[in-house]
Amino acid sequence: MFASSYRMKNYLLLLLVILAGCVTGSHVVTGKIHPAILPAGVIVYTEIPANAEMIGLVIGNAEGRDQQWTDKAIAQVKVQAAQIGANGICMDELKYGMSGVVVSAKAFFVR
């Protein structure tokens, strides 16, 4: 009985990991880091404002290729930007490949 219950819990855990998918991100600092903020405070701009101070480049990856995964990759870009204190991002590139979607953006601080 115990082995069967233990095996079932392991299968459920594996299923949750598979369903959760994989979303990763990274950043490269090219300017002055600011204190970290919440990702919700990062605004997506279509153009970099004139008064923006460049902080770095951020990347978000998600393993799917539909809109849901694109949204997750963009959310990861915002997480990465928030970690280096950027309150704004401007998308550089959105790529769909065999392994999913990759979003890259410039991260900056707007006063």
Summarize the structure.
By secondary structure, the chain is an alpha+beta fold.
Descriptive overview:
With about 110 residues, the protein is of the alpha+beta class. It has 2 helices and 5 strands. Residues about 15-20 have low confidence and may be disordered. The chain has helices at about 1-20, 65-85; strands at about 25-30, 45, 50-60, 90-95, 100-110. A 5-stranded mixed beta sheet has the order 1-3-5-4-2. The protein has a single domain (about 20-110), classed as Hypothetical protein apc22750. Chain B (Translation Initiation Factor IF3, 2-Layer Sandwich). The N and C termini lie far apart (about 60 Å).
Low-confidence stretches: 13-19
Largest sheet: 5 strands, mixed
Q: What's the SSE pattern?
A: HEEEHEE
Shape call: globular
CATH architecture annotation name: 2-Layer Sandwich
C-alpha-based Rg, rounded: 18 Å
Number of strands: 5
Structural class: alpha+beta
Question: Can you tell me the CATH topology?
Answer: Translation Initiation Factor IF3
Number of helices: 2
Strand content: 35-45%
Order the strands across the largest sheet as they lie in space. Answer: 1-3-5-4-2
The overall pLDDT average reads 87
The level 1 CATH classification is Alpha Beta
Helix content: 25-40%
CATH superfamily: Hypothetical protein apc22750. Chain B
